[in-house]
Design a protein that fits this description.
With 165 residues, the protein is mostly helical. Helices cover 78% and strands 0% of the residues. Helix 1 runs antiparallel to helix 5.
């Protein structure tokens, strides 16, 4: 059962990473276009707002993918000095705390998104609503928490994680 959940999670994380990469590419194109247009004519209207929105998508949607590939900074150097049972305990403790942290971040971001939705807050220049991007970040935190939970289950059950290609 855990293998199926992990395979589905990997698929979701790859889709989110593709969206994050697209947002990052759009940010680069937008920044370059703004520099060229600023030098030759007029700057692109709303560049600052669009960069912020795209940055939120890129950051939020890349979290879980990075966790799948263990790309985040870890304290493994210090943990490796302890005996194996202590390493498992510390890994489970830090994984559980991280899982709870990102679940709480997702809840708070979703609450903030609902507040912005109720308020009808829009960006100043382009008039784009803020709340969808806040929900995107909340969903990224949910996926991060989910991947951390699967890691925790794997750690506690003593199973090796799936091989990612």
């Amino acid at each position: 059962m855990i293998n199926k959940l992990e395979k589905i999670s990997i698929l979701f994380c790859r889709i989110l990473a593709w969206i994050a990469g697209t947002a990052l590419t759009a940010m680069v194109v937008l920044a370059c276009a703004n520099m060229v247009f600023r030098a030759t004519w007029v700057p692109v209207k709303g560049t600052f707002e669009l960069m912020g929105f795209l940055g939120a998508v890129a950051a939020g949607f890349s979290l879980a993918f990075s966790q799948l590939y263990k790309s985040h900074i870890a304290v493994g150097l210090f943990f490796n000095k302890f005996p194996k049972p202590m390493q498992i305990f510390l890994d489970a403790l830090s994984g559980g705390a991280s899982c709870v942290f990102f679940a709480l971040c997702a809840r708070e971001a979703a609450k903030w998104g609902m507040f912005l939705y109720d308020l009808g807050e829009v960006s100043e220049t382009l008039g784009i609503e803020f709340y969808p991007f806040v929900f995107f970040v909340a969903f990224g935190c949910v996926m991060m928490s989910w991947v951390l939970l699967l890691d925790l289950v794997r750690t506690l059950s003593g199973k090796e994680p799936l091989k990612l290609v």
